[in-house]
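Check this:
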Amino acid sequence: MAALNNRVAVVTGSARGIGRAIALKLAQAGADVVVTDTDASGIEQVAKEIRDMGRKALAVAANVADAGDIALLVKKTQEVFPTLDILVNNAGVTRDGLLLRMEEKDWDLVLSVNLKGPFLLTKAVCQIMMKQRYGRIVNVASVVGQTGNAGQANYSSSKGGLISLTRSVAKELGSRNITCNAVAPGFIATPMTEKLDVKLREAYLKAIPLNRAGTPEDVAGAVLFLVSDDAAYITGQVVGIDGGMFMR
């Protein structure tokens, strides 16, 4: 796979889990990385791990749903790095509950972070990418954005919307040599899924032909491919990282 030397990547929600794995994977491939999350101490630790590899890293605490935070994130990135080549919209939250019991604030929070956040950051970053006529954008969606899921009307809607945003951005920016794709993880072993009920976890595993949960590194490997030159002719696509859980 082509190296990412001299590329600069922004990875949201990268203090832990899938985001952390993506940030480290891109750094291992040669990229300098802007690590951003609401967890200030977490992103500093990840940034240190990246610097220990010999790569440059910038840690910026930010709430992706806040336009002011987004502006500051982009400003700080431009102050440190000469380009901004890769954006991975990974930050996400859940507030699960059956539709009849779901509170409006839980709907608003999930849609704000999971969908509005990628919209705000993509809008800000694409202006830079358009000028340099190069960019790679990857959105971390979810298998439930394609299938729906009981008890996750807000989360499923946000990820389904993110898939549609991916395709729209791909069509709008393709002429500027900017690709935009999504990955749709299935059941991935993260701190978020560890909180699930044991019976629910077992039910998910039974639905996976590969008979195991995915790892953050499984997702990171797919993201690395999509931002590399090997994927230069791929855009507007959704890559399932689910062990066969959902087959189209």
Observations:
- The chain has a mean pLDDT of 96.
- The longest strand covers residues 178-185.
